[in-house]
Every structure is written in C-alpha cells, then in structure tokens.
Amino acid sequence: MLTGRRFRVEFTDEQVEYAERIGAACRAVWNTGLEQRREYRRRGAWMNYQSQAKELAEAKTEHSWLKAVPGHCLQQTLMDLDRACRERGTFRVRWRSGRRWSPSFRFPEGNKMAVEKLNRRHGRIKLPKLGWVKFRAGRSLDGETLRSATLSREGRHWFLSVLVDDGRQTPEAHVSPGSAVGVDRGVAVAIATSDGELIDSQFVAPGERRRGIALQRKLSRCAKRSTNRDKTRAALAAVRARERRRRLDFAAQVAHRLAVANAVVVLEDLKTKQMTKSAKGTIESPGRNVAAKSGLNRAILSKGWHQFALALSSAARYTGTAVEKVPAAYTSQRCSACGHVDPRSRESQAVFRCTRCTHCEHADVNAAKNILAAGLAVTACEDQPRPAGRARSPKQEPAGNREELLLQPTTAAPAA
C-alpha cells in the first residue's frame, strides 16, 4: 500500500541555492496560473490544466529561468493548482507570498529516482537536475517502490517526503476479532478509552510556552516587512514546529497501539475545522464570548484531535482495524450504566455523577463507553441483510487493496 516517509536533507551550498530557485519558479507559476484562472472566471470562462500546461511549454522557450528548473516540478504545480481550484473554488485559493510561503515542490516520477544507503544513519537519493541528495535515513527504503518525492523547507532545514509502495496489503481480519474500544477526545485529557485508560502528554515545556508568548509580543511590535520581523517569525515558527512534531509523534504512537490491540475503534464524528472557527464575527454582527471561544479553539488544536483521527485511519490499514464514527450528541451527558441523559450529571470537567442511579465515573471514560456502545450498535445494524442495490457491510467484505477495489467495475443501482 502507499505510505509516506520523511527525512531531513543535508544539502550542499549549491543544492540549497538551486532548490531555492526551483521553489521560486514554482511559486511564480502558481501565482501566474491563479491570476490567469481568476481573469477567465471573471469573464465567465474556465481555464483547465491542459491549456495552462501548453502555455507553460511555450513560456519555457522564452524565459531561461523556467527552462533551468525541472519541468515536471512546474507541471506538478499546475496540477496542484487545478485540483485546488476545483475543490475550493478559484477565488478561495491563496496566493503564495515570497515572504511567508515556504518553498515546496514535488518530483512526480519515481522511476527516474534512485536510492542508495551510505551507512547506518545516512542515505542518498538521485533527483532530476539536483543530482545526489544526502539525507538522514531514519528508516530503510529497501524493498519499497518510489512513487514521488517532495522537497520542502521548514525553518532553516530542508526535508524530503517520499511516497512509496511498501508492498503490504490490509489484512482481511484482525488478529483479535472480538476486541473493540471507544475513544473520547478531550481538552483536559487528550485521549480517554472505554477501558478506563487516560492518555495525555505535554507537547510544550513551560519555558517554551513563555518563549512563545514573548516572541508573539515581540512580533506584534515589529515593523511590517522588516528584517527583525522575519527573524522573529522564524524563531516563533521553530518553537511551534517542535510542538507540532511532538503532537504528531504522540498521535502516531497512540493510534498504532489502539489499532494493534482492537479490531474496532469507535470515535466521535467531530467536525474539528468548524468547531475551531473564530467567534469574532463581523462589524455588523460582532461575536460574543470571543476570548472564551479563542481559548477553547487553542485547547482543541493543541490536543491534535484531527491529527489523531488521521493517524488512526493510517494505522488501521496495517492491522485490519475498522474505524467507526458515531454522532457526538449527548455522549458526555448520558450515563453509561443506566442510559439516563441529564446535563446536570456532568458535575465538572472530570467528574460524571448520574442523577438517577448515582453512577460515578471519570467523565471522559463515561463518554468513551457511550461512544463504544453507539459504535457497536452501528456495526450490528450494518451486518443485517440489505436490500438490493445497497452497499455491503464493511465487515462482510475484506478490506484488501483499496486501489484494486476502486479499479474493479461495479454495477450502479437503478435510478429512483
């Protein structure tokens, strides 16, 4: 199956300069293509990838700086722009600023790359026009087929993200077919399971938190488009990057442990992007409780709810775990022992005491048990016989290779 590997790159000075040139050319192609698409949309017309790729080939004959960079990177930039415009709308796609956008470009043809292992800690990959690029090999790529490679800059360092086919397939059945667990995501405790386990971690040290606040204040006082502002923004980004990497590592480890131990993992169907929207509103209708909503948004984002869901879906491919999502309504107000729903039962962030049966338990664990019960009810209903034309239950059909299943012909249901 397809998966990603990420390594830190050790460029030479010449490669750093050339990579910056490639990133600048890709940014120029993105901005030019976006402006062209917007002009077409204003006239009621539409610009697609094929016509822009043809114009790019003509522009390379006139501009040497376009011809000096890999053409596949420029074409891939136009493909990414086409997909972004189709998914989000032409006028909602953002520009790539020379000051704020970090260079990033992709080599889409894996058959033109080669990987060699130098020693226990380092390897190198051959990229078109860049030559051999040395990277820190945190894991081996032996036996894996390269599909594409992406170079991106994060702060002062460059990173290599490789898409590979590791040759593995999703198991047809889990090693523990009868196991299941419910997971509740919270702001006080990151993960609470129906087994009574509370999993949490501090992603930023107290000193780093104070440094981040000081850098934010310093950034607000810096003059716009100044060198000091750029330095302060880079220092703040470094602090945030360390916190983000710790959060990603925590989500990956917990997701792997839950997927290995359970055949079914049930989550709440949370719309994190909508839940963390700003409450400021507009001038005509200003929002209320803006400070409290901002604090809640920061707490949700700091625990990595969405990152954990993505990591769990990725880990489930290797274990055959079924990830179910259930509505989140009343899971924190319902008693897991008697089923009574009362908002007053939630005494505090951590205490749940039922007003009917006096059942007392940690509030997040009680919610996780309710989530598990709802998820098992959903899976039980899915295994019932279905009318003709309805999709089969996920538990009745082996997972197999997702790409092969998508390529198989299917018979569409008759139109109503």
Characterization of the model:
With 416 residues, the protein is α+β, with helices and mostly antiparallel strands. Among the domains are: 11-101, no CATH class; 107-165, no CATH class; 180-202 and 258-282 and 290-382, no CATH class. The chain contains 11 helices and 14 strands. It has helices at 13-42, 49-62, 64-67, 71-88, 206-221, 227-261, 272-275, 290-303, 305-319, 363-382, 402-407, and strands at residues 2-10, 104-107, 114-117, 122-127, 131-136, 145-154, 157-165, 180-185, 191-193, 198-199, 264-268, 322-326, 351-353, 360-362. It has a 7-stranded antiparallel sheet with strand order 2-6-7-1-5-4-3. It has a 5-stranded mixed sheet with strand order 10-9-8-11-12. Helix 2 (49-62) packs antiparallel against helix 4 and helix 5 (206-221) runs antiparallel to helix 6 (227-261). It is globular. The two termini are 37 Å apart. 25% of the residues are buried. Residues 1-43 form the Transposase putative helix-turn-helix domain. InterPro entries: Cas12f1-like_TNB, Transposase, Transposase_put_HTH. Residues 305-371 form the Cas12f1-like TNB domain.
